[in-house]
Amino acid sequence: MRIERVSLADKNVKESLSHLCQSHKEELYADYPDVSIDYPTLIAAEEAGQLFTLAAIDTAGQYIGYATTLVVRHPFFDLKQATNIALFVDKGRRGGRAGVRLILETQRLCESLGVEELAWGCPVSSPLVPILEKLGYKLGDISIKRRVV
Fold first, then answer.
1. Residue from 74, 130, 143, 142 nearest 103 by CA
2. What is the CATH number of the domain that holds 130?
3. Which tens digit of pLDDT belongs to each residue from 33-56?
4. Whole-model pTM?
5. Residues 101, 131: contact at Cβ < 8 Å?
6. Is residue 139 part of a domain?
7. How many domains does the chain have?
8. Considering only CA atoms, which of 70, 61, 65, 109 is closest in space to residue 87?
């Protein structure tokens, strides 16, 4: 398995990730049937240097996971901050190294970009929480959400 930085503007990448994105949406946003991936916004952020996507690709060339991260200056504090906005590994490939490798490569790339703080979001009961804690992350801000429309 390898981890590669990919462009969401690349038609082949978009097609290769489409089944994973659909599974991700179904897993996290089943109650939001009208929600879809906003590729134009993602691509605009990527072109502005504010977003990157890493893909986990198996030895057969199949995309098995991805991590998409937003990198911006904090709008209030003088801080370059990154927030992972999507981390997903195919259900059949979880429990292996793909997720951890995506996390570590995201962290390495953020360090090379001069990011001072990297945040990860996940469901409260996610098995990702203890993995991130083992990697030195600490529980920080929480978000509590509801659908308003």
1. 130
2. 3.40.630.30
3. 777 888 999 999 999 999 999 999
4. 0.89
5. no
6. no
7. 1
8. 65
